[in-house]
Amino acid sequence: MKFKNYKSPKNFLDAMKIIKSDRNAVVLGGSTFIRLSNKEYSTAVDLSNLNLNCITETESEIKIGAYTSLREVETNKIIKNHFGDYFSSALQNIVGVQFRNNATFGGSIFGRLGFSETISLLSVLDCTLDLYEYGSISILDFIKRRDISRDILKQIRLKKEKGKFAFKSMQNTAEDIPVLSVAASKRDNILFTIGARPMIATIPTKAVKKANSGRLKKSNIKEIANIAVEETKFGRDHKASAEYRRSIARVLIRKALEEVME
Question: What is the pTM for the complete model shown?
Fold first, then answer.
């Protein structure tokens, strides 16, 4: 990654002026993977002076600043006290500790990368994103809104709800990008998503409806997994074929659903 200019604005207004006026500017918080390319950008925008590196809680929510590192989210006691090992199980295999100390939580969301474990795990939670210009939007709506690109993600808000959560993924080697991931939650209803297909995480609506239409039992989890696979599109890349991902999906969905049932 190359860039001609480097700017570190002191406030959101100045940061937005740069982003809006320069279509070839890049926000460094979302550029960890960009380093792997030789693409040249006009301006690198560093948001580290905007106080977005924090995790706080209220009675009803946990708030994660967009510049908080993946490692901090992985190990934070506030998050662990409410969600148990759910976040750490999803984040602990992302490349390595040095990478997670540098990569930001907001950057892993805003880029809408197809292999993002972060988007998969958030998709089954009551999660709201606060953007500087657009305002608040749910994580599921944000995934669909590709037109929201020249903005700044300020924080991620997670509603505190009692429930059970599970994250399962398949990787060819340790600390590699996942071949497939599945996240599931059981609160008032059951919800699960399939990510790294290698496309962005998606909720198999027919299967989820089936899972909530009656009492979920181990005897019908296999049927629900098959419905989910049939309605979901899988692609191929250098890591796996579409058919291999379909086979893995059936296994990971069953494991995730069994875990939230316990």
Answer: 0.89
Query: What are 29-86's pLDDT values in tens digits?
Result: 644 544 455 677 788 888 888 999 999 999 999 999 999 999 999 999 999 999 999 9
Task: Decide: 44 and 3 in contact? Cβ < 8 Å.
Answer: yes
Q: Could you say which of 159, 191, 207 is where a domain stops?
A: 159
Question: Following DSSP, what letter does each residue of 38-73 receive, concatenated?
Answer: --EEEEEE--GGG----EEE-SSEEEEETTSBHHHH
Of 260, 134, 170, 131, the C-alpha closest to 208 is 260
Residues 6+ apart with CB under 8 A from 123: 139, 140, 143, 183, 193, 195, 201, 203
Q: CATH no. for residue 102?
A: 3.30.465.10
What CATH number has the domain bearing residue 14? 3.30.43
